[in-house]
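Sample intake sheet
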Amino acid sequence: MKRVQAACILQTLVFQQKDDTYLSKEKKTALNKEEVEKYKASLEKHKTRFQIVEETEQEDGSILVRVRKQYNDKTDVTEYFN
């Protein structure tokens, strides 16, 4: 019999620019940053253990986020976050 002793997910997310032509590039970038913050807040709200590995604004204004997060709350993932 096998059991998962520890599990972690490494995701790369891209928060892309909105296609609204009437918004300025600065406003679109601000909306992207707001969306990233909402994503982080939702992880905290659901008590998901996570670590932002990288957060980079791309030339086109999109934001690339690499996040390591706990797979479930049944296993100890301390080794992944040290």
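Comment: Strands lie at 8-15, 50-57, 63-70. The longest helix spans residues 25-45.
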